[in-house]
Specification:
By secondary structure, the protein is α/β, with parallel strands linked by helices. The chain has 3 helices and 7 strands.
């Protein structure tokens, strides 16, 4: 499976660190504790990626990363909006960078660019 890496603009092969397990972090929210349509797009891209990878024999662990001061009610509302659109919820929600990911998806991919992970922005 290949994606266009936001850093280089080139197609990049997604290579999971563990055979058969693709770990994806969805980076959503802003420091002002707001979510917007770009964040729904991130959730949609994560879901489509997972649904595409699963028939290829990959188990996909999707993690939602929100800002440290994110209001739980707003996170719940974002996930509720995603559910109304038929988007599967991430398996985990966290406020810290946490465990390593094989791929980071989000409109603000600075963290991924610093670590050298493949990243895919949800916005041009």
């Amino acid at each position: 499976m290949r994606i266009t890496d936001a850093r280089s603009g080139r197609a990049t092969e997604i290579r999971p660190r563990r055979a058969g397990l693709l770990r994806v972090t969805l980076d959503v929210g802003r420091s002002d504790d707001r979510f917007d349509l770009a964040d729904l797009r991130v959730l949609l891209i994560g879901d489509v990626l997972a649904r595409t990878a699963e028939p290829l024999g990959l188990q996909v662990a999707v993690r939602l990363q929100v800002p440290p001061l994110a209001d739980d009610a707003r996170v719940t509302a974002l996930l509720g909006d995603a559910d109304l659109l038929g988007i599967r919820p991430p398996a985990e929600t966290a406020t810290d960078p946490g465990r390593a990911a094989d791929l980071v998806i989000g409109p603000r991919t600075a963290a991924a660019q610093e670590t050298g992970l493949p990243c895919w922005p949800s916005l041009p």
